[in-house]
Amino acid sequence: MADLDSSPHTAAFWTQADALLRKNLTYQKRNISANCRLISFPFVLCILLVITQTLVDNQLNKKSRKCGCQCIDTNGDGTCETVCGLQFSDLDQSPNCPIPSPLKWPPLLQVPAPQYRAVRSASDPFTDLPDESCRQTGNCPVTVFITGTNQTLGQSLAASMFSPPSPLNSTNSVLGSDSETRQDSFLDPAFFEDSLYNIQSQCTSNSTANVSVSLTVSQSPSFNFVKETVCVPSLSLWRNSTSEINDQIFRGYKKGNAERQYNEILGAYDFLNSNANTFNVSVWYNATNKDTVDGHYYLVRLPRAVNLVSNAYLQLFQGRMVLEFIKEMPKPATKQKLDIASLLGTLFFTWVVIQLFPVVLTALVYEKQEKLRIMMKMHGLGDGPYWMISYMYFLVISALYMFVFVAFGSLIGLKFFTLNDYSIQFVFYFLYINLQISLAFLASAFFSNIKTATVVGYICVFGTGLLGGFLFQNFVEDTSFPKGWIIFMELYPGFALYRGLYEFAEYSSSGTSMGTDGMKWGNLSASENGMRDVMIIMLLEWLALLFIAYYVDQVFSSGSGKNPKYLLQKFRKKRPSSFRKPSMGRQGSKVFVDMDKPDVIQESQFQLQFFPHSRFSLLSEESEYLSNSKFLDGMAYASNHGRPSREKVEQLLLEPTTSHSIVCDNLRKVYPGRDGNAEKLAVRGLSLAIPRGECFGMLGPNGAGKTSFISMMIGLTTPTTGTAYVEGLDIRTEMDWVYTSMGVCPQHDLLWETLTGREHLLFYGRLKNLRGAALKRAVEESLRSVNLFNGGVADKKAGKYSGGMKRRLSVAISLIGDPKVVYMDEPSTGLDPASRSNLWNVVKRAKQDRAIILTTHSMEEAEYLCDRLGIFVDGSLQCVGNPKELRGRYGGSYVFTMTTSVNDEHEVEQMVLRLSPSAERTYQMAGTQKFEMPKEEISIADVFQAVEVAKSRFPVYAWGLSDTTLEDVFIKVANSAQHFHTLT
């Protein structure tokens, strides 16, 4: 046989790629609105970020948040000059003021609020704390726990820490506050709120005192604060160990979360091994407000707690140390900034980029669900062109999407894009979109329903963002978390994307606050920068997933699939020179044949193994059935022809070349049982040979196995055993070559809703290697032949076609490009009589020099189009022959019909039996009866005479005598076969 590469119907790789590219471009042009909505998503998100950023900036730039100013007459001439500074600012304004010389503030302790101070509780084993009733009067003391190796020393030091000072002032008083601290203490909130306490060992009856604080701002006059303090008694309690202190602090912190009842202490000290020569101490301090909801670690009031114990020790052994003040570092004027894109960009931009995943996934699953991929493949589209064009198409769409995303973000001034090096962004996004496309190709192999794929895809989108923001980011920021586990988590592409965007956000945020550049190539070598690891992971994973996706697609998703070891086999480039006799599925050239007819035996390559007599002897009803059927005739035919009988298929398999386009060799399909149901035998060892130029019609009831047979022949499913040869090619191993010479009109129309009829035919014509004027001519002729040319129907979208128009287009697609083998599964379904007649003429002309297998339920269609017919029942072929032969073989009888009253039915039956003793009644209802009478037993004249006599005896409403039709043959064979399978 000729080399397949030289076949005029085999399109080259680039021809197939060009055809698919043209189709995709046309398809996307029709879906331009959906593509615009997809591309506009980054626009919408970036605009939302800009609006949010503007609102935040307006809040930060309000006058109430700028450094306070006041008009002062500095020269005494009556004119004032605006002076801005800390002395004119409040708590919200002070962080923005220039502080060349920071203020000196008295050191404070963080004192528990009255309602949170430690008291006795049922869960606390210690009873030395005050009773809970003190909270009602607001006079609970603040508690200090003490431990160490020397209890006497510890208690002495504790007693001296809160001794009453004299005189009372801000320097030697132990002051504290329960106000919340801030990120800076240029203006301490304690001096602006009514919560300043004076802690003493004992409080007198007059428990309030004023404390004056003089504050001086550089180049400005001093201003004084006079605050009234509330005396709070201290309570020093000894504990035997640090574990007791830890346990009690743990029990008291946020006791009863529902009611948020705290049981706080002021602090605790462990003097360890301190003595007169050694001072060694551990300090617990109150840090209730250190970690706030917004994640900022505010200043803690710790210096005074350390000073108290140090001062007590010095006072006991050496002297006294005075802590006069604390103050911040100097700073210039600042402007509050908050970059929303850097703050929220990691999460939002993860959603923006990863949303391309469900878009690609659903597009691939859509082609799979609608069987468009296999339809293209059945008309000659190879896997190589499909993968190349589809991959490049999604890559271009993704690249355009990312370009718009970065360009628009940069245009509106988002620091996330403008500060980071664009070349790093290009490499990162390029690697990720390739990885994402490869992952979508792999994932599509495991989905067959677009709704399921869409749900799973968007769960991945939002799940990745949320898990990245609330879980993965915490691991990245935790320096104690093993780096190896971080890299392992980044093997999931979504986390790799999140990590890269996180690094961009960190560098842009740092650059915004410090006025520096964002990420540069040199930063990738930093140990804390994970961008280099992410890029390496994405590159390697992209290549690995692309290979795995292609392999899985070949094995599981490409029609009938391939052997998992196919990559190890040598790629076959030529057609085989002869048929190869199969070694599997024949079981020693013997098979049980149901209802073996002579015509079926002649098609089969198998010798018969007869049923033993004992098998039928136990069936009382079966003997009558067998005697009335043609079963024994078939058995006799087999006996006369001997064992083994080698017929047409067996002979064809031994020939080096053949004129038969299709040869089926014991083709068998079994569907496994599911949900407790038994396995389904759909095709039972079918053997069939169809030459070129013949239209073979398959008739059979619903569920007979016709579509299962067609599905195996066109590569939708694989045979369980046996095989078939199409143009000398084995459908089990060489289906890719079979597709190049095949046309298919499937049972259900497989069309793109937004492509026109002309565009469908142009695409499939190019796949069949038609070009230029030949392509246009073939398309025009196809459209005219199926009556889709006039009235602009050819340029109308297929989605707007009626069912009949879609059917005609499917037939035209199956015939374009002159395929050698065509499968038509009920091609005239849904057509009106005129369109059906026109379609029949098209098929009749098309069968020249090609083999056509046609399934239909229309006997008229089968008789008009088919050269031979095969009646298929319960998975097996019951008879084969042309319509005339089948009528002669199975229709050797007349059908007599008579309608009378119900009371006269017996008279009619007796009349018929007198005419033909072998007559059988096939129908009886409401006085109407049908009988089959063998032709050799009656004459038409006798029937007419008998009817005339009957009319004189009883009323005859209607009667008729007809020859056997093909429909009668079909019903008879189908009923007989079904009855036989029921009995056996």
From TrEMBL:
Q: Which PROSITE patterns match?
A: ABC_TRANSPORTER_1, ABC_TRANSPORTER_2
Q: What InterPro entries does this protein map onto?
A: AAA+_ATPase (IPR003593), ABC2_TM (IPR013525), ABC_transporter-like_ATP-bd (IPR003439), ABC_transporter-like_CS (IPR017871), ABCA (IPR026082), P-loop_NTPase (IPR027417)
Keyword annotations for this protein, in alphabetical order, are:
ATP-binding, Membrane, Nucleotide-binding, Transmembrane, Transmembrane helix
**Protein's membrane topology:** Multi-pass membrane protein
Q: Where is the ABC transporter domain?
A: 662-899
Q: Membrane spanning segments where?
A: 38-56, 340-366, 386-414, 426-447, 453-472, 484-502, 534-552
**Main location per the UniProt record:** membrane
**SMART domains named in the record:** AAA
Instruction: Tell me one GO molecular function of this protein.
Output: ABC-type transporter activity
Q: Where in the cell is it found?
A: Membrane
| Assigned GO CC terms | membrane
Tell me which positions the record assigns to the signal sequence. Answer: none
Q: Which CDD domains match?
A: ABC_subfamily_A
What is stated as this protein's family in its record? Belongs to the ABC transporter superfamily. ABCA family. CPR flippase (TC 3.A.1.211) subfamily.
Q: Which PANTHER family match?
A: ABC TRANSPORTER A FAMILY MEMBER 3-RELATED, ATP-BINDING CASSETTE TRANSPORTER SUBFAMILY A ABCA
Q: What is this protein called?
A: ABC transporter domain-containing protein
Q: What is the lineage of its organism?
A: Eukaryota, Viridiplantae, Streptophyta, Embryophyta, Tracheophyta
